[in-house]
Design goal:
This protein is mainly β and 123 residues long. The protein is 9% helix and 50% strand. Strands 1, 2, 3, 4, 5, 6, 7 and 8 form an eight-stranded mixed β-sheet that branches.
Amino acid sequence: MTDEDRYSINLDVKYSPLELIDIRNLIQESKKNWQNFSLSEVNDCVVRLGVIHGEFHWHKHENEDEFFYVIDGLLHIDLEDRTVDISPGQGFMVPKGVSHRTRAPIRTSILMIEGKTVTPTGD
């Protein structure tokens, strides 16, 4: 199975500046196990919403850091030497070049901030 079959990742920025973004509504409308929306651009970064359940593959981003913020659910970020558990209201930054894998044992909603040049499935 290819990454495109497992994950629904939309790279097109959905909202323009000065446009209201109803994140709660986007979460409620998400029906897939792994859905990722590019919400807006902020300077040289993209803010993405992920509504996920299951696990992503191991990967890394050679040139971009990646920030995760949990809205609801539970997110595990596996690193080579440990696992970080992130609960609602908590955030975590994975620096560029660090191999990681995200897992959500239950339906989980997250915000991610990453460089516009990032390939979400890894380099």
